[in-house]
Design goal:
Two copies of one chain form a homodimer. With 409 residues, chain A is α/β, with parallel strands linked by helices. The first copy, chain A, has 16 helices and 16 strands. Helix content of chain A is 39%, strand content 17%. Chain A starts with a strand and ends in a 9-residue tail after the last helix. At the A-B interface, helix 13, helix 14 and helix 15 of A face helix 13, helix 14 and helix 15 of B.
């Protein structure tokens, strides 16, 4: 499976890579927009394609509860269900089970939790979490882990990390025994190696909407990544990395960060954990971060990141620009004819003024959330594109990105 | 001003026409999507262009309150403010003042009302309503009228209709005296006769976003339309039409319908009122209606219609299709892989399944409102396109439209 990832160029600690998935190749470092329940909030799949999103993330916990894995499976998997022809990653549900459920009960077997929607009781085990993710059919799926709370004492963190390691082994075993049931693995190949974004003309449509275009590009299997835990303890992180690597995965994630700890500590743990991860495998830092942070972590050698921040902030009127953050609700923008970011070529900045965006937000118009989300996602994706360009030129990715070199308040 | 409208073809009572505005020619019969506060809810201007919207409607009452006419004026008028290069019509505020204000006070001079936003007191007179509309700078503006309540006794309807006629004369006088202040009339001509929809490349952008593209196509003035009232009384409608025509306008609207009366009565009043309107001027039926109704009224000789129904229904999960209405929230669609409307070529029906749309709605996802709105608008605009095609072929517009001939429950 090591051929799934290749490193094209190295600049400092940063790496320009290429990750091959059943739904196309991904250039890394990559930012993955979050599409919690099979939708990146407020943004159409067409727009995501236009923005250059290479891979999006779905949340197993949410999709399991609604629409349910059986519905997604019957609809041909997540790609067909949401008509997204490029790559998808699903998390394992571990993080949501811990963050959305105060009444969860954790045993060696797994986690009993209550739905945040209707209070109904459910169980995730390492095996069931993988089973659900095989049913959803994402290109990259994640081991079921325990996201250790912060703060926690060392014994608690060690016990949690060790259980995550045991769960990782169970996940891998279940995956190896069942991966042939994956829609990604079993579906016929109908696309070229690099699926395009054009939809077939109406006259060629099959009964299943856009089915053909969401077929995997090859008969490659899903990729199961392991997750390193260990709280804020560098030694336990090292041990978690070693144990996870020993089990063996085609990619490794760093989980359990951005859970309330100071940002300097996050960075310290990321940097020290990266030292213990294989250089020839993709490294995924989960749930991070601000534009400055994604540039910084890419420069440290992180290959994949995801965060709800661009879309969530957008819905609250907080917009990221090359000149810093803008709170578009402010009256100072009411008659500002400038584009949101004069250095941005996104469809929002090409067409609309700050005054109009401010008016839409102040008027609580649906379009405010749509346009703000498109811009923020564009800003994140363009930032990562510039990081990749910097690495390809052998330059400091923080400089050319235009973000990391000058952090804004 | 009679040259602004030409009739290309007549089929029965239906007319295929062409209305020339400062922002391009409009083929009639036309359906005008409603963009209450300078946004068709949930739909970008790019998408509206792709859907073939020729003209959209803005509500003077709402725009007057927020962002305010001075802001719009300083931003270069409504076209520039919202970056919409095609035609815009603003209503006079009359309908909203009556429908949103229980505490309004009507005198011969005008209407005192309270903002539905903050309770602040405001006054609209015929003169001020025109002044606001000159400031907003729409291509077609409307006389300030009193929308008579339903039911009302004959004397009340007569008095109201007569005041609307007197107000119409005041509107016309004020407009004639001040129309040279209109941004539409005074702005320099920078576009060809038929403004395109492509935005200029980023490198050519001026400081004001998209300003050039929203310039009027010629130095033509705004068009002020009169409004016929008279409640549900055919005689009073006739008298209102005659008095409004005597004042003289380049187009005539039928107002005061769809205010709670039975639909058969609406149709009867429309049909009888149309008999008294000039055949060589555009006729605008305000606030109507369902897909079946817009086809029916076009066949009676109505040239322009607007309605919030396609977007409002969309936000409630009610979708219009060639096979009838669909309530997408229903569980029966949970695993339905078919497109919403297999006869529809809109971007939603080309790409997404009913199952996905149902999931988005059930999950209260922002994208549900966006996609549903795009489809319903597409259905309305395509319906009217088919009506125009039918008329051009000399056929019964109700037949070829695929809607009016088979009304659905």
């Amino acid at each position: 499976m090591s051929t799934a990832f290749s490193i094209e160029k190295i600049s400092g600690s940063a790496r320009l890579g290429r990750l091959t998935t059943p739904h196309g190749k991904i250039e890394t470092p990559v930012f993955m927009p979050v599409g919690t329940v099979a939708s990146v909030k407020g943004v159409t799949q067409e727009t995501l394609e236009q923005l250059g999103a290479q891979i999006i993330l779905g949340n197993t916990y949410h999709l399991y509860l609604r629409p349910g894995v059986e519905t997604v499976r019957r609809m041909g998997g997540l790609h067909r269900f949401m008509s997204w022809p490029r790559a998808i990653l699903t998390d394992s549900g571990g993080f949501q089970v811990f963050s959305l459920n105060e009444l969860r009960k954790v045993t060696e077997d797994g986690v009993t939790f209550r739905s945040h929607l209707d209070g109904s009781a459910h169980v995730f085990t390492p095996e069931s979490a993988i089973d659900v993710q095989i049913g959803l059919g994402a290109d990259i799926i994640m081991a079921f882990d325990e996201c250790t709370e912060y703060p926690a004492d060392r014994e608690r963190v060690r016990a949690s990390m060790e259980m995550t390691a045991r769960w990782a082994a169970r996940c891998k075993k279940y995956f190896e025994d069942h991966k042939d049931q994956s829609l990604v693995g079993s579906a016929p190949t109908t696309q070229s190696d690099n699926p395009g974004t054009d939809m077939p003309p109406v006259s060629e449509r099959s009964r299943q909407v856009s089915a053909a275009n969401c077929q995997p590009a090859s008969d490659k299997s899903q990729l199961l990544f392991g997750i390193v835990q260990g709280g804020m303890d560098r030694e336990l992180r090292k041990e978690s990395a070693e144990r996870t690597i020993e089990i063996g995965f085609p990619g490794y994630a760093i989980g359990g960060l951005s859970v309330g700890e100071p940002r300097a500590l996050t960075r310290e743990i990321v940097e020290s954990t990266l030292e213990h991860l294989p250089k020839d495998k993709p490294r995924y830092l989960m749930g991070v971060g601000t534009p400055e942070e994604i540039v910084e972590y890419a420069s440290l050698g992180v290959d994949m990141m995801d965060c709800v921040l661009p879309t969530r902030a957008a819905r609250h009127g907080l917009l990221f620009t090359s000149e810093g953050r803008i709170s578009i609700k402010q009256a100072r923008y009411a008659q500002d004819a400038e584009p949101l970011d004069s250095n941005c070529a996104c469809s929002v900045c090409r067409r609309y003024s700050r005054a109009y965006l401010r008016h839409l937000y102040a008027s609580n118009e649906l379009l405010a959330q749509v346009l703000n989300s498109v811009h923020n996602l564009s800003f994140y994706l363009d930032t990562m594109q510039r990081v990749r360009h910097s690495i390809s030129l052998g330059k400091d990715s923080r400089f050319l990105s235009g973000v990391g070199s000058r952090p804004k308040a």
